[in-house]
Design a protein that fits this description.
By secondary structure, this protein is α/β, with parallel strands linked by helices. It is built from 13 helices and 15 strands. The protein folds into two domains: 209 residues, DHBP synthase, CATH 3.90.870; 96 residues, Rossmann fold (3-Layer(aba) Sandwich). The radius of gyration is 20 Å and the shape is globular. Bound molecules: threonylcarbamoyladenylate and magnesium ion (MG). Threonylcarbamoyladenylate (TXA) binds next to β5, β6 and β10.
């Protein structure tokens, strides 16, 4: 199959492909999604096959507006309208209990709940409206690779396996949406996956408690969002997180041990490491927003067999605000390992 890169003018063509059961990747403000008609079980199965993803991991249903959700849900959490009015379209996925049998089991993984999101991306909202159906949209990467933040990343992973990619340029946020569980109207909202909409944002806006799934805090518990239990991205190259104060020691270690090292960091650190290490991927700025936007692109660039790096050292950010989502993704990529002085 030849994978076509669709431009904005070809949205009607892409929408017809989707409506008829084909696969088209779409841009969002977070990462690219792999789109298929959520109402066609056969099409959804193709999504799992193209990604090589375990099929008990439920998918997000992407909609063009809140009205569309009402076709599948009638029992809403009392805070729903307030949350939707403030955060949609945006990087916030909401989990609701659904009307029994209203969505195919391949979408929900057989759960009585489903995840919904209205992405803040003009082209994709037009695609959904034109198709006239909701779209499933897991991140459009091969399972086990970092989520794609550009059409090129999608092409690299899925060319030949999908009908097309709607090109919307690089994504703005770079980490996947916050997943918020609203499925039990008697319980406070609970964050199952951290993203750009933070616990602090939600709690202060709602003026009421917002919980965070226990396993995100203590690693020993089983996560409630099924996708969070999979080892997400396991680079072939070792990845180490480097605390701000540890960069001089990390540099010394690289030199003494003759490590072929790569670095992912903002300009301040990247400049210092430039001539001392084998490869540097510079984040565009020294901010956590720049880190989130470019982390996956940096990992894709440096975890490349041709570079043959032995280790990738990555800048850390404070575990607050957007830093919670950044550190969550980086922890997964590094297997939770930090650089420590005196390492072998
Ligand atoms: O930003 C995003 O959310 C991107 C873009 C493309 O929209 N999509 C994305 O999809 O990250 P995916 O499939 O990679 O992640 C969906 C997450 C998984 O962790 C999954 O387990 C969780 O949402 N999820 C889906 N349905 C659920 C449900 N009914 N209950 C709990 N978690 C659910
Ligand atoms: Mg994913």
């Amino acid at each position: 199959m030849e994978t076509i890169l669709y431009e904005a003018e070809q949205i009607p063509v892409a929408a017809k492909v989707i409506k008829d059961g084909g696969l088209v990747a779409f841009p969002t403000e977070t990462v690219y999604g792999l789109g298929a008609n959520a109402l066609l079980p056969e099409a959804v199965k193709e999504v799992y096959a193209a990604k090589g993803r375990p099929s008990d991991n439920p998918l997000i249903v992407h909609v063009a507006g809140f009205e569309q959700v009402k076709e599948y849900v009638d029992n809403f959490h009392p805070l729903t309208e307030k949350i939707v009015a403030k955060y949609w379209p945006g990087p916030l996925t909401l989990i609701f209990s659904i009307k029994k049998g209203s969505l195919p089991e391949v979408v929900t993984g057989g759960l009585s709940t489903a995840a919904f999101r209205m992405p803040d991306q003009e082209l994709t909202l037009r695609l959904i409206k034109t198709a006239g159906v909701p779209l499933v949209g897991p991140s459009a990467n091969t399972s086990g690779k970092p989520s794609p933040t550009s059409a090129e990343h999608v092409y690299h992973d899925l060319a030949g396996k999908i009908a097309g990619i709607l090109d919307g340029g690089a994504t703005k946020i770079g980490v996947e949406s916050t997943v918020l569980d609203l499925s039990d109207p008697s319980q406070p909202p609970m964050i199952l996956r951290p993203g750009a909409v933070t616990q602090e944002d939600l709690a202060s806006f709602l003026e009421s408690p917002v919980l965070v799934d226990g396993h995100l805090v203590s690693a020993s518990e089983t996560p409630k969002a099924p996708g969070m239990k999979y080892k997400h991205y396991a680079p072939d190259t070792e990845v180490l997180m480097v605390r701000e104060k540890d960069w001089p020691a990390a540099l010394e270690w690289v030199q003494k041990q003759h490590k072929k090292a790569g670095v992912i960091a903002g300009p301040e650190i990247a400049e210092k490491m430039r001539y001392q290490t084998a490869a540097v991927f510079m984040l565009p700025e020294d901010t956590v927003a720049a880190g989130a936007r470019s982390l996956f692109a940096g990992l894709r660039a440096l975890d490349n067999p041709q570079l043959a790096l032995e280790v990738i050292l990555v800048e850390t950010f404070d575990n607050q605000g957007l830093g919670v989502a950044y550190m969550n993704r980086l922890s997964k990529a590094s297997g939770g390992r930090f650089f420590e002085a005196g390492m072998k």
